[in-house]
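Hey, quick one: can you model this chain's 3D structure?
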Amino acid sequence: MTGHMVDETLGQWHFWLSMIFFNMTFFVQHFLGLAGMPRRIPDYPLQFAEFNMISSIGAFGFGISQLLFVYVVVKCVRGGPKATAEVWEGAQGLEWTVPSPAPLHTFHTPPRID
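Sure thing. Here's the predicted structure for all 114 residues.
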């Protein structure tokens, strides 16, 4: 999209932090529901306090990991190594005949696909 390569290490960090914190937020809520916590109430019994705290920490961590994603995108837009026509080794197909970033009109005439 930008014509620049994404920082692979930061992309992996974003993926794993998002995966961990997402599950820390919502998987815990699954067990809260099984334990009998009602939904959409302003106050809850103290027996659910620890799981709700874990879920809240997971939600804040998930939000922070999305800030890392924004940083990765901004870093990619500002520059970095140029993206080649074939980013992945052995990539074949019509989509790899288009330069990066893709022009406004990709093909003037429809390509023949065999």
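One thing worth noting: The helical segments are 8-34, 49-78.
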